[in-house]
Structure formats: C-alpha cells, structure tokens
Amino acid sequence: MNEPLPKLLPKDFATDQEVRWCPGCGDYAILRGVQKALADIGARPETTVFISGIGCSSRFPYYMATYGFHTIHGRAPSFATGIKLVNPKLDVWIVTGDGDGLSIGGNHLLHVLRRNVDVQILLFNNEIYGLTKGQYSPTSKIGTRSPSTPMGSVDAPLSPCSFALGAGARFIARSIDTAQKQLPDLLARAHAHKGASFVEIYQNCIVYNDGVFEAFTDKALAADSQIWVEHGKPMLYGKDGKKGLRLKPGTLELEVVAVGENGVSPSDILVHDETNKTLAHLLINLERPKFPAVLGVIYCNPAAEYEEAVEAQMEAARTAKSGASLEKVLKSGRTWVVE
Amino acid sequence: MNVIAAVPHDREMRELESVVVRFAGDSGDGMQLTGSQFTVATALEGSDLATFPDFPAEIRAPVGTTYGVSAFQINFGSSRVLTAGDAPDVLVAMNPAALKVNIGDLRAGGLLVVDTGSFNERNFQKAGYEANPLTDNSLAAYQVLSIDMSAMTLEAVKSFELSQKEALRCKNMWTLGLTLWMFGRPRQPIVEWLKAKFAKRPDIAEANIAALNAGHAYGETAELSGQVKRYAIGKASLEPGLYRTVTGGQALAWGLVAASELAKLPIFFGSYPITPASPVLHHLASMKEFGVMTFQAEDEIAAICSAIGASYAGALGVTSSSGPGIALKGEAIGLAIATELPLVILNTQRAGPSTGLPTKTEQSDLYQAVYGRNGDAPMPVLAAATPADCFNMAIEAARLAVKYMTPVMLLSDGYIANAAEPWKLPDLKSLKPFPVTFRTEKEGFHPFLRDPKTLARVWAVPGTPGLQHRIGGIERNYDSGHISYDAANHQRMTETRRNKVLGIANDIPLQTTESGNSSGKLAVVGWGSTYGAIEQAVRRARKDGLDVSHIHLRYIWPLPRNLGELLRGFEKVIVPEMNTGQLLTVLRSEYLVPAQGLNKISGQPFKIADILAAIHQTLGA
Ligand code: SF4
Fold first, then answer.
1. CA angle A11, A13, A16 (to 5 degrees)
2. Which of A152, A272, B226, B555 could link A229 by a cystine bridge, Cβ 3.0 to 4.6 Å?
3. What structural domains does chain A harbor?
4. pTM of structure
C-alpha cells in the first residue's frame, strides 16, 4: 500500500531561488550542511518547516525546498511554538543569529528552551550585525569597532551556549560553518533529540567581521585549537592527539594537559559525559585561546517535551468531560425561562 | 409582594419601573460577590437588568482608603434595561470611604444604607472625613438607614465559633439578605450557591446562610417598618426563551468556541495576562475538551506570534489583550496582514494612554485598531455593543478571518467585559457553518493564488504533500508568491490587500437604525459599549416627540456600504464616544459629514442623561 518514499538527496532540499548572501559568507556552508543532514536523516520536505526571524541568517527558509516562514525580528521561537502545539508531527527548525536570537529575541529564545518545545534551533553566531551593515552584536568582544561603536564596544559579550544552559536547554551543541564533516551528523543528533535542541554555529561574516574565528578555524591551527567532544570518549585533541582536558586537581575547573608530560597519563583525561550539566557548564565557559574551542554535542539530557504535556492535558479534559457540548455549557449555572 | 413603594407621579420617579442599586465597600468587603449574587436573584425573578462592576486597580489596597473602594451597580426593571443606570436609587456603603466615593452619585431623595459598625474615627480619617458624616447633617438630602451590620453579622454567626475575621467576612451576605428583602427577591439561589461554593467548609457556608437570613429577617420583622419602602419590580417583557446572565468575557470565549465548531477548526488562543482582557483567557483555559488550546506566552508579542504560527499550521489563531498589549503586537499584526493568514485579535479596551487606568473603561483604541500599524496595513475591525453581543461578534470575526485570510480585530472594552446582562440563549443549530477547506491540489499552486471574488489567498498548511512553499514579511510576487522587490508589484499587492479588506463591505449587513427613522433631524451614531446609554436616551427623546435616531456600528472597518447615504439623510449627526472623537474623525473623513462629537473620557460609562442632554441641545429642544 504505502510505497517506500524515494530517498532524497541534498539537492532535493534546495529551492530554485537565487541565494542572496555575500559571496564567501559562512551561511553557504551551513546551508549545504543542513541540506545534507536532511537527506541523511530521511526528512520529508512536506513535514519539515524552517522558521526564521530577521537578519542574514533568517533568509535561510527561502533556500529550503520545505515549508518555510520568514517572520519578524527575534520572534521565530514564538511562531515555532504555535506551529508545534497545533501540529506536533511537523519537524520544525528555527534559524536565527546572534542579534535576532540573543538581542531582540532573547526573551523568546529563553522561553522556547525553558518550555522544551521539540524544535531544532540553529544560531549562526558571527558576532556582528550583518544585514544592518556591521554594528556590534551581543556576542561581539569588548572593543569591537563598528559604525555604532567607533571607539570600540564596552559591554561584555554573551555566551550563547551558556545562555541556553541557563535557560534550561536539554541539548546544546556547537559547530563551525565550514565543518562539513561534522556538521551534518551534529544536526542529525539535534534532530533526533526530543525537546528543544540548541546548536550554536560559528559563522564567518566575510564582509563585516571577517576572520573573527580564524584563531581556531584556520586549517593550520584547527587541530591544536579545537576539541570535538564525544560522549564516553576521553577529551583529547591536538595534532598528535596528546592534548587533553582534565579536572585540575583540588579544584572545580578544567585544565589543558599533555598526555605523557608532567606525569599525565591517559587515564587522567576527563571522559566526556554529555548528560552531566556541571561538566557542560565547565566546557561551555572555557575561554579561548587559553583553551581550545569546544565543539560537538556538549550537553544532551532529554526531558519531557512541552507539546506532549500540553496534549496530555487536552486529552485528560476530553476524557473527563466526554459528551461536553457548548449547549450544555451555555445552559450550565443559573438559567430561567421567560414565557 | 407585601410592601410597595408609592407609585410615583413626577417625571424622575417614573423611572421606578426600574431601580438602580449600588453596593460599595472596601475591596475586602466582597461587594462584587454581593452584587453578582443579587444579579442572579434578580434575573431569576424575570427582571431585565444591566450591571456595572467598578473595582480598584490595586489588588489589595489598604483597608478603609478611598482608592480601595470597590463598587457594583445593578439596574433592573420591568421594562427594557440597557444600561447600569445613571444615578443609584439605593446606595449601600459599607464604610466611610465607600460613602465618600459614591455619595455624589446617589439621586436626591435616594436611600442610603450604611454599616455604622465601620463608621469610626480611624475610618473617617482614612476616608478624609473630618467629622462623622452621619451626624453632621451633610446627608440631609437622602433617606439614611444606619445599621450596625458588623455587630448584627457577628451576632448572627456567633454559634459557628468562627474567628472574628471569618465572621466579619459574612457581612456582605447580611447586606445581601437585607437587599433581597427590600426588593422581594428569593434567597434560595444564594443559599444553593453558598453551599456549592463552600462545599469543603460547611461551617462557613452555614454561617453565611445564617447572615443572609438574619439580614432578610431584619427587614422582615418590621424593625424597619416605616423607615424603608420596599419596591416591587415586576417581570420584564423579554422575548420568550431560556435565559442566563452573561458577561462580555464569557460571551467572547463561548463565541470563539462556537466559531471553532462552525469553521471546523481547533482554536489556538495565545495570550498574555492583562487587565481587563484576562477573563477570556481564563474561560477558554477551562474549555480544553472543545479542542481549545490556550497558551500563556512570555509576552504580548509571543502571544500573537504563537497564534499566527498556529494559523499557519492550520488552526484558528486567536490572541487577546488590551491597548498597551495591542501596541506591542503591532508588528506581528502587520506580518499576518502581509502573509495573509487568518487571526482573531481581541482588544478589551481600557483607559489610556500607556498604563492609563487599567480597570476603567474607554473606547480610545479605535485609531489604533483601524490605522495603528506601519505601512499600508488594512485590517477589518469589528466592535461588540453589549456583553451578549460579544458572542455573535466573535463568530463574525472568525468568519471574516478565515474567509478573507486576514487578521480581524474585535473591540470590546472594560465595561462590556465585566458587566453582566440577561442573555436569551441562542439556538446553536441555527448558526451558519463556515467550514474551511485547505488547499491540497498541487496543480497550479502558489501560496498567493487568490479567490477572484474574495481576493483571499489559498490556505495551504505545512504537512500537505507537494505544496511546500515559503512565506514571509518581505513583499511577495503577485503571480508566484516568491519574494519580490519590484516596484509595480508592490503597488499591485498593496492595492490588492486594500481591496480585499474593503470588499468585505459587500459581505456584511447594511447599516440600519436601532431605533428611529432612517432619515430625519438627528442621528446619534455610536459604537461599542455606549449602546445602552444611547439607545435609552434616544427612546426617551422619541417619547418626548423628538425626531432622533440611533445608529450603532458593529463594523468599524470597512464601514457598512450604505452608511454614507444613511448619514446624509440626517440634518445633524452626533457621535458619543468614550474618547476624544475617534469614530468621529473616521466618519468625517470617509463621508465628509459635519458630525459633532460628544466625548467622555472619565473612565466611566456615559449616563443616559449625558446623551439625552446632548440630543436636546442639538435639536434646540
Ligand atoms: S553581511 Fe555577513 S553574514 Fe550577512 S550575508 Fe554578508 S557575509 Fe554573510
């Protein structure tokens, strides 16, 4: 009866619309990564929905041959929540940026994570406002010179993953736009996670903030400045795989060590436990360049999702009040007859 | 009925075919409960009625202060009652502050009932009285009935051994008992209500019943003989049928549920708490068995955005707020207009600007509703005239929203939301269904494909195979729905959106008059909750032989297609509004008619007398 649906390729998720990001923008790589991830996981275009707010990243839905809604600045999580509540079967992806998601839309991001709505949130972090022509953003480093901060920004930046953890997110991952090898798998994991999944993607804005992540994204430096964490595996990195993270003895902080040096043995290296919130907190807050950029699934600890809880109450009401009718409601309480 | 008021002969007293009673006390005195229970007892006796609850913005204002005074007014009678009444005939004041705030409204010669138990130095001070107003002759214009209700209540409930505080809480039932006696209303419905309400504390229920009976007995046992007249209010000649009382908040909620059944769509109600709009959220939150999903969002913006998302996904999205919240929703309303998604937006107006007077009523969001968005963003705007009218208008808002794929704003206000009136229950089976069909056909599909007649675009919901498409706030190409920055296309799309909304004028009833002829010397044009006051004033003026008609608009935008012609049939037009002249501006700009405003912005509804005076003045009569 049900014919098996044809296997789709990444290109089947591309629209015929001309992609309008600046040539060389990191968004192109992310688009490729997402299209590949959807093909890999066997997503169906008719049940997949991309929701975005405003900003360069928010053009994303126009380039996906799925359902898409390009909404208003910062509010994508609210639209997504309404959509998921009405039709939990839809596969909803939110695409946002550091300005859209953390500045004007910070409140909604907080609440979609707290409620644990089953959506995937991709936050493209380029530490700058692109579409409005280069003003500093809530993730820009102190001292960022921009048209609105000619003498450099003075306010402290926000860490997106730290924000997500604080908001109660149960899935937090981090990647890089150009990490074509890892990104599709990471997105597949985000998709498999029930509840809100939060993925921060370092994205290079070639026009207004070029090279801001170069210190760890540059091919020559990557091995020694990135660590891809994996659940159950020791947190090792570096060209020779000898660098690692361990708990600094007698403290609740991490340190970088080299296996074989200063008496550090492989068993000293911390094994990643993605269900451990304390460890997630430590990893998320490691500062570069003293520490490597922590990438991969940092935290995954599922809990009941919002739509299911809401639906359970609807079902309970339907069961408890079966046979309810509006007529009965109108006639409930005190009525009288006028003859 | 045993004791009857003398049948009055003068013009003023003729009004006694209806009576206005106001209960006023401290927020903690339970005056809203007293009032609403008196309403029930009165309705059950077949009187027509209208109520006006007036409570302070503070949840627990300091005891005994004037700003902590809460009042409930009911007008009931044997003839058609359309407003809560101008001036109370009877004022019950539970403390000096309540007296101070309300005495100015009591009609001369009216009955004032006070609880002397709370008339003490401390309370005089808090109310700002220098001397006891009961003894300084300042109340000479009224008939004063001083009773130590506090002491009588304590005495009545003594045997229940409640704490002093709990015992005094029964005072409102004592008062209610006395008032029920005064108007010959039954106690039984209140007794039943108390038993149900305090099912878990039968001692409290019994104490309250004892207080109720004691208050009643106090009147009955002739302790008041000679002092107080009782009033006989006969049954009103209402249309035959089954009735209940209803508030605007209830009627909106039930109307939405009815609309959901007529449209065969589930309701998604995204809202953020705000006075005086929250009752709709509360009512709907307990109606999940009807497929109503309520979502208390993190803010007003999320509330509307979730509702738009819900409509996008194929539900009937509804959001609800009051002026300040509607302001926050403005950008999202624009998106719903741009993406042409159905949405019902309820605005229960309150006095503004900004926070304004949250618990006081006003009709000052008409500009906001009709014009208040960036860009050329046309949206249909409806206005309910009475609490019961909210039921029909909620259905109408939903019908237009899904038929024309547009957000629709329905205006109510604080008065309509909280006031109660008898409602002849509608025959639900007679309501005309308007089932929605989603687009499923792939052939020739694009998301902005329009119905040539209504200009509504197709509604294709995510999950439909083969109809994947993208929509958004960027201008869309007329022929493909793709984003387009083309100048001519923008002109065409803007005109199409305008024409779509203006075309609704062909799908709504022609404007008629509520009373009076369809042409003549004077038309009084109103909208919203001024309905009762205007209608009563016009009826009285007509009885006095004046040539005046009442036109009441339920469709604010687009306006009914015959309205211009109708208005031009009158020599003069006055527009009473609880704002500085907003409908007035719209009418003048649309029809170039020399209409004049009658404006009240005090946070209180119009009195019949206000409008009657304006009619007389305008007609020089
Ligand atoms: S401005 Fe920056 S982020 Fe935006 S499209 Fe261009 S390169 Fe990409």
1. 80
2. A272
3. 10-212 (3.40.50.970)
4. 0.92
C-alpha span between B589 and B587 (Å, rounded)? 5
Contact B315 A337 (CB under 8 A): no
The amino acid at B346: L
- For atom 1 of ligand 1, the residue with the nearest CA is A130
Q: What is the pLDDT of residue B227?
A: 62
3-state secondary structure of A165: helix
User: Ligand 1: which atom is nearest the Cα of residue A55?
Assistant: 4
Q: What is the mean pLDDT of residues B389-416?
A: 97
Q: Could you read off the pLDDT of B127-185 as tens digits, one per residue?
A: 999 999 999 999 999 999 999 999 999 999 999 999 999 999 999 999 999 999 988 88
Is beta strand B316-321 parallel, antiparallel or unpaired with respect to A254-258?
unpaired
Contact (CB, 8 A) for B34 and B86: no
Strands A243-247 and A254-258: antiparallel
Task: Mark out the alpha helices in chain A (DSSP H runs).
Answer: 26-41, 76-86, 98-99, 106-115, 160-167, 183-192, 214-217, 219-225, 277-284, 306-320, 326-331
Atom of ligand 1 nearest to the CA of A133: 1
Contact B298 A322 (CB under 8 A): no
Res B15: pLDDT: 40
d(CA B208, CA B220): 18
CB A27 near ligand 1, within 6 Å: yes
Cis peptide, bond prior to residue A289, ω within 30 of zero: yes
CA B325 to chain A, closest CA, distance in angstroms equals 16
Query: Is residue A139 a contact partner of residue A102, using CB atoms and an 8 Å limit?
Result: yes
Scanning every residue of chain A, which has its alpha carbon at the shortest distance from the alpha carbon of B305? A79
B558-575 mean pLDDT = 98
Q: Is A49 left (phi over 0), alpha (psi -120 to 50) or beta?
A: beta
A128 CB within 6 A, ligand 1: no
For strands B548-553 and B520-527, give the pairing: parallel
Q: What angle do CA B209, B212, B213 make, to 5 degrees?
A: 85
- Is the Cβ atom of A19 under 6 angstroms away from ligand 1? no
Residues B128 and B147: their CA atoms lie apart, in Å, by 22
- Select the residue of B291, B299, B317 nearest A82 (Cβ to Cβ): B317
Each residue's pLDDT tens digit, B495-521: 999 999 999 999 999 999 999 999 999
With H, G, I as helix, E, B as strand and everything else as coil, classify residue A229: strand
Q: Tell me the pLDDT of chain B averaged across its residues.
A: 93
Q: Copy the structure tokens of residue B213.
A: 């009976």
- Residue A77 Cβ inside 6 Å of ligand 1? The answer reads no
Residues 6+ apart with CB under 8 A from A269: A234, A235, A236, A244, A245, A246, A257, A259
- Whether A126 is in the pocket of ligand 1, judged by its Cβ within 6 Å, is yes
Spatial distance between the Cα atoms of B275 and B356, rounded to a whole number of angstroms: 11
Question: What is the per-residue burial (b if ≥16 Cβ within 10 Å, else e) of B232-257?
Answer: bbeebebeeeebbbbbbbbbbbbbbb
Which residues contact residue B343 at a Cβ distance below 8 angstroms, ignoring those fewer than 6 apart?
B304, B307, B308, B311, B317, B318, B319, B333, B336, B401, B406, B407, B408
Cβ contacts of A70 on chain B, cutoff 8 Å: 470-474
* SS3 of residue A135 by DSSP: coil
* Interface contact flag, A324 B306, Cβ < 8 Å: no
A71 and B472: CB-CB below 8 Å?
A: yes
Measured between CB atoms, which of B189, B258, B302 is closest to A326? B258
Residue in A57, A35, A73, A80 with CA at minimum distance from that of residue B462? A80
Shortest CA gap A169–chain B (Å)? 17
**Is A90 near ligand 1, meaning CB less than 6 Å away?**
no
- Provide mean pLDDT across the span B414-435: 95
User: Do residue A85 and residue B310 have CB atoms under 8 angstroms apart?
Assistant: yes
Q: What is the per-residue DSSP string for B436-466?
A: -------TT--TT-B-TTT-PBP---TT-TT
